[in-house]
Amino acid sequence: RVTFHPDTDYAAFVGSYKPMMGELERYALDATGKTHKIDAKETSIVYSFVPQAFMKAYVEAWRRYTDDSLQGDAKNYYLVIEEINRGNCAQIFGDLFQLLDRADNGFSSYAITPDNDIQNFLQTDKKYKLAEISLSEDIEKQTKSGEKVIATAADIKMGKKLVLPPNLYIRATMNTSDQSLFPMDSAFKRRWDWKYVPIKDMKKGWKIKFGDCEVDWWKFLVAINKIVKSVTNSADKQMGYFFVKAKDSVIDAEMFVNKVAFYLWNDVFKDCELDGDAFKITREGDEVDVLAFQDFFKDDGTVDEEVLKKFLTTLVPQSETAPGEFEVGAAA
Asked: Taking the alpha carbons of 270, 271, 272, 274 in that order, is the dihedral positive or negative?
C-alpha cells in the first residue's frame, strides 16, 4: 500500500540506490607485501538498491504465481495506491505505463526493458530472489498471426524484461473533488477499470449541533449538494458523508464553520451568484445582503451561532422529510 503525493516520483514508487550504513571488509598487507582479508570489519556508508512498493509487489506476485503450493486467492497479490490523482502519474509510472495494458491471459501485453540498476537488483538480490522462481514458460501474446513471445522465462527471472503476471492486481483510489496539482491524461486513465462510488447516507446519525440548534448532517448534505450542483454545473464539488469527522456523532459550530463553510465559500461559491433565503442576511438599516463567509463570525473571532442557525434551519427546515426520501446527485 502506498499513498501518492506531489513529491512522489519513479524512484519513490519503484526503487533506487540510496546511502545506507553497512559493514565493509578490511584488508591489510602482510610481511611479504600481499593484501589479505582481516577479521575486523568497518562500518561505513554504502550504496544499495532499495526496492519500493511497486518492485516489492512485482517480485512477490511472480513468486506466488510460480509457487505450486499456493491455490486460489492465495496466489493473488494486491498493490493499493491511495490518492492516485495527487501525484504526477506520468512521472511516477514512467515506462511502467506500458505494462498496464493487459492481454486476455492476464499478462502485460507488452514487456519493457528496465534500467541497469533494476536489472542488477533483480539478478543479485538475496531477499526477494526473483532469479530463483520456478518459471519455465515464455510469456506469449495472442496476435493476428498467432502466438508472439514478448519475454522469455529467462528474461523475466534475470530482470532483463518486466511483465506483470496475471495475479498482480493494482487498485487505486481517488476523490474527483480534490483539486489535483497534476492532470491525469486520458491515455493513462483508459488503461484502468473504473468504479464510481456515489455519495450515500452512511447511517451514522451525525448531527450539526450547538446551542438549541440541531440539524441532521445527512439532510444538510442532500440540501447543500443540490445547490452546489446547480451553481457549479458540476458534481465534482459536492461533499461526501465523511467530509468532516464528527466527535461523538456531533459536528459543532466551530467545526462546521471552519471546515464546511470555509470549503463552500472559498472553493465552491467564490465565483457563483448565491440566491435563496438561506444565503441572505439583514444588515444594519434593514439592508438585505448576500451572506459572506466572514458573517459567520463575531468581531471577537468567535462563531456567530445565530447567523449559523438561520443559515442551517432555512436551508434544512426541521419539517423536512426523512433523509432516505431525498434524491442525491453524483458523488464527489
From this structure: positive
